[in-house]
Amino acid sequence: MSVFTPVTESELADWLRNYAIGRLENLQGISAGVQNSNFFVTTSLGRYVLTLFETMPRAELPFYLHLMAHLARHGLPVPAPVANRDNEYLGTLSGKPAVLVARLSGKSEMNPGAAHCRRIGAMMAGLHLAGVNFGRKQANPRNADWRRDCARRVRPHLSAYEQAELDAELVFQAGFDLNKLPQGVIHADLFRDNVLWDGEFVGGVIDFYFAGVDALLFDVAVTVNDWCADADGRLDPTLTSALLEGYAESRPFTAAERAAWPAMLRAAALRFWLSRLEDFHRPRAGEMVLVKDPGEYRRILGQRATDTALPALPA
Amino acid sequence: MSVFTPVTESELADWLRNYAIGRLENLQGISAGVQNSNFFVTTSLGRYVLTLFETMPRAELPFYLHLMAHLARHGLPVPAPVANRDNEYLGTLSGKPAVLVARLSGKSEMNPGAAHCRRIGAMMAGLHLAGVNFGRKQANPRNADWRRDCARRVRPHLSAYEQAELDAELVFQAGFDLNKLPQGVIHADLFRDNVLWDGEFVGGVIDFYFAGVDALLFDVAVTVNDWCADADGRLDPTLTSALLEGYAESRPFTAAERAAWPAMLRAAALRFWLSRLEDFHRPRAGEMVLVKDPGEYRRILGQRATDTALPALPA
Q1: Which CATH class is domain B114-306?
Q2: Nearest to A4 by CA among A30, A43, A41, A24
Q3: For residues B214 and B143, is the Cβ–Cβ distance under 8 A?
Q4: Which residue, A164, A185, A204, B251, could crosslink B125 as a Cys pair with Cβ 3.0–4.6 Å?
Q5: Which residues touch B280 (CB under 8 Å, ≥6 apart)?
């Protein structure tokens, strides 16, 4: 499923000579992920994950790898990239840009309770605080500009009714300037399946390949929309409050953020409605994208736009 | 035992505001270690170890902390120091230099078998290879110069018979120049109690506060003297071969190292005989040093000096 480029044991054993992590003991493809080829790699010195980047431009990769290294250096459980004996994170294997990262322990929790949500809020605040002194800049690849452009691309594929919904939301969002809110590096895809739990602790936050600089509150909204929604897409007040309070303990929200919260929940829902529409209607050659239901985020967006009792940000 | 400087929860909670690792949940003194005050620290985001340096000069600490960070960055299981929000590893708490490091899992194995020794050899080679491109230099604090000086300090406390043994060894060592062998950053104290095992893997190599630049083979000799000796101090051929082969798979020994091996085993034994003599006869005020038996390393030194069947380095 997710090994597009095969790697043999002897190729990898040879490549590992430029690392300090011992001799190859085991190599195993991973059937998850949709954009890259991933492998579990066991050496005499430990367990790692090897990623070959199939479609991402090589020039964009240092931002992600140095971000993960920066966050790991600040004590956060993210996949720390492994430097080779030339002190570089990014190498080339089977003709593709390739990186080894530390393998993290734990598994995803798809039915989180309030305690999970509180820790995820705290973890996101930690990521945001540690990101403050990260030197590299790269915009959120799914920011407001991308949303406008993507809406133009997918609009012709929609029904008249969906077009009207999308147009109305774009008009609403055009009056809402995220750039006036506190900015920083955000994960931007902190869904439940990108978090590994090690008992009660977050053992790993993975998949930083949508990260970029944007309003910090956008990250909060993306995360709340996924972690705190019930089966109908409605926000559970207990889960939502737990997540927001966990976050605010480390980084209190500003008055501007409190005012922008309802609109931000809609912007975050719009981003995933749009990307899922594009994956559905305009699949890109060479990518085996797992097509997720765009309808789920259309419903979430509609719910956020009409909910008169949205849980507020803590003062 | 090893908390010389107390730290309160409220002091620590306050200090942690300059980190991105969440809110303090638990603080607990650790009764191990003899030079520093150590604490287990649990926050909302994970588990860490806090060290307050009681006697080490502040100016020497960045070498150790950046070395640990460098080795962790190269994928090795060492306690990675946690950077604070000013991007610094070293802070000040209760008036002492202080650092937080990632807490590693596992426990020591005091009765290692050949498989353990092979992995320790491989791990030490990994540390040596990763250390090659580490930019900072600081000499091994227990190098040949220190051994000569320390011998002068402890000699008056010895019996005539021990003095003769020591004098003979110093004459022998004076004819042996470690500087001609491959040099690099060495751990220099890779005893069994400084390695944590996580199942069959090395989960952590700890206590880098004797590390420095010296002959790489000195590290191998220190390690073999501890891991591969039987109850009488004699080297077990099976354990010794396993450790040396595990090492040589990643960094083959040179001809000069093979020639120097018997003398290096004696130099490494002498270092611990001397430091234990000094701890015993000249305890330093303000340090609660766990006095270990100097006789153990006197016997090991005598054994290495007379053993006509020492296991050789692999070709």
Answers
A1: alpha beta
A2: A30
A3: yes
A4: B251
A5: B291, B294
Cβ density class B285-310: b for 16+ within 10 Å, e for less = eeeeeeeeebeebbbbbbbbbeeeeb
What does the alpha-carbon distance between residue B251 and residue A144 come to, in Å, rounded to a whole number? 52
pLDDT in tens, chain B (315 residues): 356 788 999 999 999 999 999 999 999 998 766 678 999 999 999 999 999 999 899 999 999 999 999 999 999 999 999 999 999 999 999 999 999 999 998 999 999 999 999 999 999 999 999 999 999 999 999 999 999 999 999 999 999 999 999 999 999 999 999 989 999 999 999 999 999 999 999 999 999 999 999 999 999 999 999 999 998 899 999 999 999 999 999 999 999 999 999 999 999 999 999 999 999 998 776 555 567 899 999 999 999 999 999 999 998
Distance from chain centroid for Cα B249: 22
By a Cβ cutoff of 8 Å, what residues of chain A touch chain B? 19-23, 44-48, 69, 72-77, 80, 82-87, 100, 102, 118-119, 122-123, 125-127, 129-130, 132-133, 201-202, 246, 249-250
Pairing of strands A201-205, B46-53: unpaired
ipTM of this complex: 0.92
Identify the H or E element spanning A120: helix A114-131
Cα–Cα separations (whole angstroms), residue B145 to B142, B162, B173: 8, 20, 11
Ordered by start, the domain boundaries in chain B are 9-102, 114-306
Topology of domain B9-102 in CATH is: Phosphorylase Kinase; domain 1 (3.30.200)
